[in-house]
Design a protein that fits this description.
By secondary structure, this protein is mainly beta. It has no helices and 5 strands. The strands form 2 sheets. The chain has a 3-stranded antiparallel β-sheet with strand order 1-2-3, with no helix packed on it. Strands 4-5 form a two-stranded antiparallel ribbon.
Length: 91
């Protein structure tokens, strides 16, 4: 892993759906804070990666600092690899 990196695993066990057609939406949130309140330049990007690794990337830039995230588009569901969607939720 690269320096200053975080790797995480989310495990949900025995979630009871009311129907086989139901879906589960997992919402993750993060916050950033800055000390200055004026003349802040910020940008947010969310897109497919260009490396062909079947993942999405997120880039959040505030002034000259950037946060990068990569989200794979697969999950183990009942021990079976399945495709998933990563969708940014704007608030």
């Amino acid at each position: 892993m690269n320096p200053s990196s975080i790797k995480y695993t989310i495990e949900i066990s025995e979630y009871k759906f009311s129907s086989n057609l139901n879906q589960l939406q997992l919402v993750m949130t993060a916050s950033l804070s800055v000390n200055k309140t004026n003349d802040i330049c910020s940008n947010k990007e969310f897109s497919e990666t260009s490396s062909g690794d079947d993942s999405n990337y997120l880039k959040i830039q505030i002034d000259d600092h950037s946060l990068y995230g990569r989200f794979i588009k697969r999950a183990l569901i009942d021990s079976i690899p399945r495709p998933i969607d990563n969708v940014p939720l704007d608030s």
